[in-house]
Amino acid sequence: xxxxxxxxxxxxxxxxxxxxxxxxxxxxxxxxxxxxxxxxxxxxxxxxxxxxxxxxxxxxxxxxxxxxxxxxxxxxxxxxxxxxxxxxxxxxxxxxxxxxxxxxxxxxxxxxxxxxxxxxxxxxxxxxxxxxxxxxxxxxxxxxxxxxxxx
Length: 151
Known about the structure:
151 residues; Rossmann fold; 5-stranded parallel sheet; 38% helix; EC 4.2.1.10; lyase; DHquinase_II_sf; aromatic amino acid biosynthesis; DHquinase_II
């Protein structure tokens, strides 16, 4: 069974730690990347961690994950609320798929409350800040182990 996880991050997350720290915290995306890759390795997962500000690039990466049969953790950021191309690409994923948000989107303003991605994922983690990433990596590991035991 494929033990690869793509951790895909959407627009403006490259500025974590500086952009609206009162909402998103002070941890940088590079710090999150380092801890995510280290935890994935500890769990026997191969981690491919990426960030883009471009919708088409995100679609290409999701399709790449699909072609590889990889699990996906996606923080779609601003794509969450309007991107039909990203949503349609996520529908391809057969492996475990988790949507992740740093903030609790359900407690945010009306524009940031409803992610159109949530209906096609296995689980949603939100409101845990940077701590959501290791939770998501552990959840992917658990989902992959359960899937393997179903075979």
